[in-house]
Amino acid sequence: MENELSNIQEKIYEIRGVKVMIDFDLAYLYGTETKRLKEQVRRNIERFPDDFMFQLTKEEYNFLRTQIATLEIGRGKYTKYLPFAFTEQGVAMLSSVLNSKIAIEKNIKIMRAFVAVRHLILNSPVIEVKELHKEMQELKQYVEDVFADYNDINEDTRLQIELINETLAELQAKKKELDKPRNPIGFGAPQYKQRD
To answer: pTM above 0.85?
Structure first.
């Protein structure tokens, strides 16, 4: 049961800002041909206002095909007509149009899938946003602590480098002092000039 609910949930798409199911997926679930499902809808078109059902544009259908890998290899690959998209209310209306036992059973499961998706949308992101906010606060605090430590280390390092530079300057001054030529101490041997 839960696996079937999950399979149905995977067939719920968001198009034009609403959650919908596509006619070929519904026909598959009801065990009928897409052509037959569309025939019944057209015969009862007054039951399907725009907020219950709408036909996809070519762009929407092409985008949908990129989202559903199975469309490339099988059903829906070469459709003659653009598919219908049914909102939750439209799917509920289908059960009255497709008056079969299978359609009624599947509709109940589909309604449960829509409710589960709506519940997921309403509840899950709030929890995730709170968790993300908490994680962001923790990350911000961590970064601030790291930079504070880095600045402390940086200040200590700067002071040590200044001390090293002062010491090197003193040593260079002493070396210059030591390298100066010295005046000889004591008496030196007299220097005689040679006569020419």
So the answer is: no
C-alpha Rg value of the chain to the nearest Å: 42
DSSP bridge partners of 85: 22, 54
Does residue 92 fall inside a structural domain? Answer: yes
pLDDT in tens, 108-148: 778 777 777 777 666 655 566 677 777 777 777 777 777 66
Task: Give me the domain span that covers residue 102.
Answer: 2-128
The count of structural domains within the chain is 1
Buried residues in 84-117 as b, exposed as e (16+ CB within 10 A): bbbbbebbbbbbeebeeeebeebbeebeebbebb
Domain assignment of residue 150, yes or no: no
Q: Are 83 and 24 in contact (CB under 8 A)?
A: yes
Q: At 52, which helix (H) or strand (E)?
A: none
For the chain, give the number of residues: 196
Encoding tokens for residue 98? Answer: 């497709």
